[in-house]
Structures are given as C-alpha cells and as structure tokens.
C-alpha cells in the first residue's frame, strides 16, 4: 500500500480509543486494522477471535510456573485477558491493556466471575507512557507480530519508559520457522533489530515455541523472546 493510500485509509476509518484516565481520543488504525478492513474491537463482536483460545497460552503458563513474572506486570494487548488472569491468579499485580473495549469488557467479566483481582484498561500500546506507571515484567502475547516495520520502532519506544531498569519483557510471536507460520511471521533478526542494545534492550533468549490458535491443532510455530531492559 502506498503512503497516499495509507493516509486515505486512515482518514476514512479513524478508530476511537479510551485512554486510561483521559477522555476518548482518536488514534490512527494500525496496519493490521487497515489490512483486515476492521477495527480490533470488531474482531471480538461475533464470538471468539481466532487467537482467543479461552485459556492462557501454554508458553505463558510455563513461564509463570518457572517464576518468570515478578513485580508489577503489564499485559500489552491483553485481549480477553486469559494470560493476565492466569498471572494475577498467582498473586501478582497485573494490568492488562488493549484498544478493544469489547475484549476488555469480556476480560473484566471473567475476572469478576472467577474472583480474580486484576486491572483491565483501555490504552494504546503506542502511548504507554500515558499510563503513568512502570512495570517489572511486561508480556506481549501476539501484539508485536501485528505491527509492521513502521510501527515496531514506535511500539518499542513506547515500551521503554514503562519498563523498570532490568525489567523483563516477554514477546510471544508467530515465527518464520516452519511451513505453518501464522499470518504475521517474525524472524529472529526482526526481533534483534527491534530490541537492540543501542536502544537499551538486551535479548536474553529467543527460543522456538508454539502459539495456540483456534485453527491450529498443535499451535503455530512461534518465538518466545526474553528481553531485558538495560
Ligand atoms: C492477536 S491479539 C492477542 C490478544 C491476547 N494477547 C491473547 O493472547 O489472546 C492482539 C491484541 O492486541 C490488541 N491491540 C492491537 N493493537 C493495539 C494497540 N495499538 N494498543 C493496544 N492493544 C492493541 C488487539 O485489540 C488484540 O486484542
């Protein structure tokens, strides 16, 4: 899509988002929304979205059992909250943020139904500083891989100020390894370019994993990246 097409598309389909503690303000649709032709919120209107498996991702459960989450935790692009709810159920303080109000409403209802203390707020991952908070652990499960090459640096720059020094970011994303990759394959090089030492990040590990979806029997090939904020 050319720059002009992107601009025309953006002006046609501005999406409203509620930023925590502020009035509704406008945000530009992301590349994924422009490609899909609908807002993120709309993907939650007619039953579970393809990635909404109704339970936490096994990779996240494993990380949590291994003590991978500490301090205040942010789940960026939390969707209907299964991962945030799982981590919060272990007694951690968790904030899940998303631009999809419908997903957040579902997440809040799950928290009420299950009696789990967790916070869900509408916020744009490109504007995380507006949260006015910082986190020792940040989880990105399926968000990074929805951003295109123009958006990734903005997202990474938004993450930086909300992460505590020596904090840990986990990115679970579709990988480019294997025949059945997801719709947004990410290479190890993409991750290393986005989270570089010169930008204040240190990649501790990138290991192959699986990302479960409603349409893959055994999940899609994924990377689980563990990234430290230096
Ligand atoms: C592929 S889904 C993953 C949802 C959830 N993490 C999960 O594992 O089920 C990506 C999520 O990121 C959210 N999202 C996309 N762009 C966002 C942005 N700029 N700020 C905050 N959330 C965003 C979408 O609304 C969607 O819920």
Give a quick summary of the entry.
The chain is α/β, with parallel strands linked by helices and 230 residues long.
Word description of this protein:
Residues 1-24 have low confidence and may be disordered. It is built from seven helices and nine strands. Helix content is 27%, strand content 27%. It has 230 residues and is of the alpha/beta class. The chain has a seven-stranded mixed beta sheet with strand order 5-4-3-6-7-9-8, with helices on both faces. It has a single domain, classed as 3-Layer(aba) Sandwich (Rossmann fold). The radius of gyration is 17 Å and the shape is globular. Bound molecules: S-adenosylmethionine. S-adenosylmethionine binds next to β4.
Mean pLDDT: 90
| Class computed from helices, strands and strand pairing | alpha/beta
Gap from first CA to last CA: 36 Å
How much strand content do the residues show? Answer: 25-35%
Query: What order do the SSEs take from the amino end to the carboxyl end, as H and E?
Result: HEEHHEHEHEEHEHEE
For the structure shown, list the relevant keywords.
alpha/beta; Rossmann fold; 7-stranded mixed beta sheet; two-stranded antiparallel ribbon; 27% strand; disordered N terminus; binds S-adenosylmethionine
SSE layout and pairings?
Blueprint: H1 3-12, E1 15-18, E2 24-27, H2 31-36, H3 58-65, E3 73-76, H4 82-89, E4 94-98, H5 101-114, E5 119-122, E6 135-141, H6 151-159, E7 163-174, H7 188-194, E8 201-211, E9 220-229
Parallel strand pairs: 3-4, 3-6, 4-5, 6-7
Antiparallel strand pairs: 1-2, 7-9, 8-9
The structure holds S-adenosylmethionine (SAM).
S-adenosylmethionine binds next to strand 4.
